[in-house]
Amino acid sequence: MNTPRAIIRFTVNGERMIVQAQPMKRLLDVLREDLRLTGTKEGCGEGECGSCSVRMDGELVNSCLVPVLQAEGAVIQTVEGLARNDELHPLQQAFLDHGGAQCGVCTPGMLMAAAQLIERNPNPSIAEIREALAGNLCRCTGFTRIFEAVAVAAEKARLEKVHDAW
Amino acid sequence: MRGNADVHELIAPGSLAAVLELMAREPGKWTPIAGGTELMVAFSAGRLTASRLVSLWGIADLRFIETTADAVAIGAGATFLDLRRSATIQADLPLIARASSWIGSIANQGRATLGGNLVNGSPAADSSPALLVYDAEVELISVRGRRRIPYCEFHTSYKSNAMAPDELLYAVHLPRRWAHHRQYLRKVGTRRAMAISKVALAATALMNDGVIGEIRLGAASLGPFPMRLVKTEAALAGQPLTRETAQAARQALLTEAKPIDDIRSNAEYRRTVAANLLGEFLLELRQEGGRA
Amino acid sequence: MSTHAKTRIVGAPVPRKEGLDKLLGRARYVDDFDREGMWYGATVRSAIPRGIIRSISFEPHINWSEFAVAVSADVPGENRIQLIVADQPCLAESRVNHCEEPILLLAHTDRQKLREAIAAVRIEYDPLPAVLTLEESELQQVVVWGEDNLLKSFLLEKGDVDAVWADAAHIVEGEYRTGAQEHLYIENNGMIAEYSELNGVTVWGSLQCPYYVFKALRGIFALPEDKVRVIQTETGGAFGGKEDYPSILACHAALLAMKCGHPVKMVYDRIEDLAATTKRHPSRVRHRTALDKDGKLLAIDIQLDTDGGAYATLSSTVLSRATLHAAGPYMCPNVRVRARSWATNNVPYGAFRGFGAPQAIFAMERHMDEIAAALNIDPVDLRRKNFLHQGNTNSTEQLMREPVILDQLLDRALRESDFYAKREQFAHENVSSSVKRGIGLAAFYHGSGFTGSGEVYLNSQAGVDVTPEGMVRVLVSNTEFGQGTNTILTQIAAEALSLDYGRVTMAPPDTGTVPNSGPTVASRTSMVVGRLIERASLQLLAMLRAEAGLGAHFTSDEFFAACQRYRREHGEVVSLCRYEAPPGIHWDDQKYRGEAYGAYAWAVYVAQVMVDTVTYSAEVEEFWAVQEVGRVLHPVLARGQIEGGIAQGIGYALYEKVVTQNGRMTNNQMTNYIIPTAEDVPPIHVFIEEIPFRYGGFGAKGIGELPHDGPAPAILNAIRNATGVSMNAIPLLPEDLFARLSAAHALQEPAIV
């Protein structure tokens, strides 16, 4: 059996996209194969490791668990959409400065989970950072550098907001 | 990745009426999929048997939390993040808010729905113990109409439930009358987050002058589906909260619980920990009673 | 000697070399690449642990003409993976020796078609009796490997252990066990291969040791050096798990590429990676220790056994490191270690961070606390009384020439963790609480680099060159997989060449470009390879001064101008060095005596735990790690290594259990193989003392493996402190703690009412 392709229209990193894909194809595979956005990684295929985390309509999702049909009309952000022009997102800069990335495979998902956190909660406690990142498994860092990076980035983002408000 | 997207059909009719129409036309042929946190895992592992799926994601008629003076109705399509964020749930049904915060990760909570959790019917379902001790009712819907049954009668055997092939889970109804109850919920997994429950126990109880008035105990992973511990409740209801009562209840639970050995834990551990959780709750209850 | 000199770049927190690519999602891992016309490969594996393959048939509902199929008969060379002992077939021939052993390979243009095809290959077996534990193997009733199931044995002897027992004031015995552990790198194993008659084999993949893969491919394809090329792609974690296994996967992908005439990609999913690839060796260690009346060690007698799995792989070298670390960082005049690795019909075990040392150190450090309990002395005092000091000899009679500051590390660990006050406070609070807290420690050392004469045999070559475009390139086969190779080696070159960090880059990790500087294992990159890069850089400066008029002091522009002059007159600007052993290194491989390692890193770790007697779960609440690792090349990376190793060690102790049934892993999903999450890793306090090691790159010693050695014993010692019950096996999951506490009758009926 060959399921007919569905036409999916959605916005990815600010760009409107149209893809033709099997409706059950995982959003992860559409991003990686059809759109060549390979920053989003597959670590487990069961929603356990968070390497495939992206943001969809303002919420964090594991893209391995989203059939692409359910992304019809959605607004999606991947790691490739974090930096604006040539300017790193505060989280990317903080991860670079504080050793938040080692092997780099959990990093894209970790950044998306962290971005989701600091947008909803600009001043997270360490406990809140831990909870927000609990679905993103990192095997290299022991998380400590990541917590530090997220706390620093959150503070920087707050300061920038204050600055913008002026 | 072992699934083959070519052998599974997925459609999104977009409205509740259209989904019900489809299910009435071909009862049992279509498998509803909401947030996909269960079925997509099976798909990736090459274990998904359903060949035709109908998407419930994005159907607004299923995603609601409605409050009346004496009850809360939660749409089956409400996600666990919706439940965590609801002020009413936090205030009136705190065990549901807490259970919601333990389901997988934030990413899972934003996709997993209450309805999906119940229909999936895992013996370890995270939301079930709380629903059991809050006297939840479930509302089922089909083109034939709606009906309500107590949640404690919803699961009928391992991974089976009381729904007809053309029915969908529409909503969960919960009374708002727990402010004076002592409430308890503890989930035991191997780690703090992203844990699959090895055993969980929820309880609500009212004390009257050192005597246990009403008491409800809801458990996960102590049988083929989440269930009330009615024999243990019977050993406690109407009894003064003494050491003897507690020990009798512990014995009742150890007898009533029918956990299994599996890849995540073993029966002896589950049974004993469940009894310990009951002990912990009764201790809290007694301390509460002492203060009152 | 540059070790005490002031440095600009070494020791500074420069940005990770490939960091920006990783943060922008631009770094390309093997699954992020496609080759033109590429097919996808998959593996048909053994379903039984041991047996004869009776028949292989192909069910007719599949259109097999669309598939390429490879079997052992397709191997052009010798069907053995070349490693230490060439006993492991690339594809099974007439028999299988473990579950998941590769039997047959399939390739197709459509990845989605492969699963159904795998299920349609029917393999009939005549099962043979299987050996699934080291206990069964050592009985030797069923022989599954060689004459006697013995993959390797070592005997280490210092003094005369047997002369001591009769007069010892105390003799303490104990048995300790450790389980298998999965690396759980977040990127699974993966490889892309191309094959042509003209160019031979080229592979791109996730791997640690390009020249191991190179050697394996040459053997399987019987090809000369110039017909095999191995290129490492960005690698998403390894921890030893991509030391030996990628050789097999590369051969598989290349065989399929040869069969189908197209490039072939094979990327495992998590289910396959967990079930089929290597794990840490399970161990059983028995200690018998004699002490005098004051608690001074008189004799340490150790019987150390590991389960090696179905083939020899790296079991001998893992066993070697276990043997050499077994007696810990203590002064003892009489030591005997009898070590054996046993063949079983389990999936072959392999390299994993620490490489045998975590198993041996778990036993030793757990045993030290048992000795302290038996003698009724403080475990802190017992260790302090017996620590090695400069001028002592360790178990291999290696003279400790360099400073040994264990006392200082211990003092700091006690102070930072407030050890004594906490221990007293917990003892007091535990009496009336269902939650029992405890604190425990472990002291240990870890040898840097290959064992004994290993580095001499490796004869590593590494260096630097300068491109016409004006970049210095570091030429090594040592790879980056998160631990920081790219950063520290370019730091070292930039420092030695007095250039900016930005002017130094890594040459591509491609055997067609870089020399063989040895494998990226054994905590050797900073110390051994770093030193080679330092030397090659200084040699380059000398060359440019002698041949191209470079001044004593120079600017960056002057340096590159001198390189251009040199290039015009002499050709390529390149400087390579070979390994030179530090003076006074003697190692007797037969007697296991002498300088086992060029240098040791030293540590004292402290764990604070909480045991909940309602749920029988143990959690680490806080962790202190004090170590001396030579010169720290990069402060942030060093901390990252230590914290990551500790998190993995916590998993080893409390969470990670490989569950098998008849030799097959049954919890081979991330949902069921539990590693610590962001909520489970406690606050980790890292303290580093630096004593530069003169023969390491800018004074560095090894750092990568050390932090995995200490957590498990420190945690289990803390659990003993909390509960009063000895726990001698890891992983210690709540179910195990429940069983152990119940058996010990230490468990009072929970205080209900």
Structure description:
The complex is a heterotrimer of chains A (166), B (292) and C (753). Helices cover 37% and strands 15% of the residues of chain A. Chain A has five helices and five strands. In chain A, a hairpin with a 2-residue loop joins strand 1 and strand 2 (15-21). Chain A is globular. The mean pLDDT of chain A is 95. In chain B, the strands form four sheets. Chain B has a five-stranded antiparallel beta sheet. A four-stranded antiparallel beta sheet of chain B has the order 11-12-13-14, sandwiched between helices. Chain B has a three-stranded parallel beta sheet with strand order 1-3-2, with no helix packed on it. The termini of chain B are far apart. Chain C starts with 18 loop residues before the first helix and ends in a 10-residue tail after the last helix. Chain C has 753 residues and is an alpha+beta fold. In chain C, the strands form seven sheets. Chain C has a seven-stranded mixed beta sheet. Chains in contact: A-B, A-C, B-C. The interface between B and C is large, with 41 and 36 residues.
The residue-averaged pLDDT of chain B reads 96
Distance between the termini of chain B: 57 Å
Average pLDDT of chain C works out at 96
Class inferred from helices and paired strands of chain C: alpha+beta
Shape of chain B: globular
Count of strand segments of chain C: 28
Give me the secondary-structure category of chain B: alpha+beta
**Largest beta sheet: strand ordering of chain C:** 3-5-1-12-9-10-11
Could you tell me how far the N terminus lies from the C terminus of chain C, measured between alpha carbons in angstroms?
Answer: 71 Å
Identify the notable features of this structure and list them briefly.
heterotrimer; A: 166 residues; alpha+beta; 5-stranded mixed sheet; 5 strands; 37% helix; globular; B: 292 residues; 5-stranded antiparallel sheet; 4-stranded antiparallel sheet; 11 helices; 25% strand
SSE blueprint:
The complex is a heterotrimer of chains A (166), B (292) and C (753).
Chain A: E1 6-12, E2 15-21, H1 27-34, E3 53-56, E4 59-62, E5 75-77, H2 90-98, H3 107-120, H4 126-133, H5 144-165
Parallel strand pairs in A: 1-5
Antiparallel strand pairs in A: 1-2, 3-4, 3-5
Helix pairs in contact in A: 2-5, 3-4
Chain B: E1 9-11, H1 16-25, E2 31-33, H2 39-44, E3 52-55, E4 65-67, E5 71-75, H3 80-85, H4 87-92, H5 94-101, H6 106-109, H7 114-120, H8 128-133, E6 137-142, E7 145-150, E8 155-157, E9 160-161, E10 168-175, E11 182-188, E12 199-208, E13 211-220, E14 227-228, H9 230-236, H10 243-256, H11 267-291
Parallel strand pairs in B: 1-3, 2-3
Antiparallel strand pairs in B: 4-5, 5-10, 6-7, 6-10, 8-9, 11-12, 12-13, 13-14
Chain C: H1 19-24, E1 39-45, E2 51-58, E3 68-70, E4 95-96, E5 102-108, H2 114-119, E6 121-127, H3 134-139, E7 150-158, E8 170-178, E9 190-196, E10 200-205, H4 210-221, E11 228-232, H5 245-260, E12 264-267, H6 270-276, E13 283-291, E14 297-309, H7 315-325, E15 334-343, H8 357-375, H9 379-386, H10 406-417, H11 419-430, E16 435-448, H12 454-458, E17 461-466, E18 472-475, H13 485-497, E19 504-506, H14 525-548, H15 556-570, E20 573-578, E21 587-588, E22 593-594, E23 599-612, E24 617-628, H16 635-654, E25 660-661, E26 664-665, E27 684-689, H17 706-709, H18 711-723, E28 729-730, H19 734-743
Parallel strand pairs in C: 1-12, 8-28, 10-11, 14-15, 18-19, 24-27
Antiparallel strand pairs in C: 1-5, 2-4, 2-6, 3-5, 7-15, 8-13, 9-10, 9-12, 13-14, 16-23, 17-18, 17-20, 21-22, 23-24, 25-26
Helix pairs in contact in C: 4-5, 7-8, 8-18, 13-14, 14-15, 16-18
